[in-house]
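Hi, does anyone understand the following?
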Amino acid sequence: MTLQESLLGFAAIAALITVLPGTDTALVLRYTLSQGRRHAYTAALGMITGAFVWGAAAATGVSALLTVSEVAYDILRIAGALYMLWLAVGLWRASFAKHDGALPPGALPHHSLEPLKRTWAKGFISNILNPKYGMFCIAVIPQFLVPGVPSVWMGLLLSVVANVEAIIWFIAIVAAAQFFGRWLNGGTFRKWIDRVTGTALGAFGVVAILETRHA
């Protein structure tokens, strides 16, 4: 397998994983509609940072420990599930809070905007506590290593490819949400997007816990 073939093959698989509905997509969509484009991109940056940490860990063999230690994997999975449930509860609580009248998309009052550091942290934690992405890196990256290229550098390069695709996907989500947000204005819709996103995150958390119990 040549370097070009490796990058193209991995890019195809990573693209499929990227566009699958998940917590990352749900959070970016919610931030776009409730906080604005700046917060959405900040959350996406946090997610991409977490994804790169997973890719780097897989490339250096650190996260391979999770495949050996079932306990470590279960602890990480439960921690991620609890974090998603915590986010879900927060979104449902926010949906019952009083909002101002109809405003342009993302134009919530200044005091309602979440600090960008917290937004980045939420994106980062949501990804770093996602062991399934780590398992994806461990299972897939070794299949695309190229003879003659150091495995660490090759793994990092493949991680960059996946993150570039994620950036493109997040930009598309934000653009689409802002475009359709012109017709989905007002506090009522923001309440429902919080509830739908919260329900989705809660469902992912419950499924993760059930998978741990039946593993």
In short: The longest helix spans residues 151-181. The CA atoms of residues 100 and 109 lie 8 Å apart. Confidence is low (pLDDT under 50) at residues 100-111.
